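PROTEIN DESIGN WORKSHEET
SECTION A - STRUCTURE
LENGTH: 132
TOKENS:
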């Protein structure tokens, strides 16, 4: 019997987050948006849902795939330097002003910002008028 050899084919497939999580109705829309960075309004996207549904996992996948930094809302303080960013627990920021500065810094530099929280951004407990 002749020896069998495996043939390696060069496949350059576009990156998609859909293959890294189990697709279902609950995350189908988030996955579609994550694969379309150019369609994010003003370079920002917020995903939300109850605890334990995989938001943090999705954020880490995006950060790893694109080399973005990861920040945690409760630890966010001061004036963050502009960089492509994922912000987990954005609805629990320690300093609202820091969130305001992060949003503005990313917007001014035309850098993407992906946020996640348990509630939609319109229901985040913020007092700063520019964030409300």
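SECTION B - SEQUENCE
RESIDUE ASSIGNMENT:
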């Amino acid at each position: 019997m002749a020896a069998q050899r495996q043939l390696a084919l060069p496949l350059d497939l576009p990156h998609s987050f859909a293959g890294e999580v189990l697709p279902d109705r609950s995350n189908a829309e988030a996955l579609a948006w994550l694969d379309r960075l150019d369609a994010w309004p003003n370079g920002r996207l917020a995903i939300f849902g109850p605890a334990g549904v995989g938001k943090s996992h999705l954020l880490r996948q995006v950060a790893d795939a694109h080399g973005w930094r990861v920040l945690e809302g409760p630890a966010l303080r001061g004036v963050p330097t502009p960089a492509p960013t994922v912000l987990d627990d954005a609805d629990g920021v320690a300093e609202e002003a820091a969130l305001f500065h992060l949003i503005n810094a990313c917007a001014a530099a035309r850098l993407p910002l992906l946020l996640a929280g348990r509630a939609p951004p319109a229901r985040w407990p913020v007092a700063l008028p520019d964030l409300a």
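SECTION C - NOTES
Helices lie at 25-34, 55-66, 96-108.
Residues 96-108 form the longest helix (13 residues).
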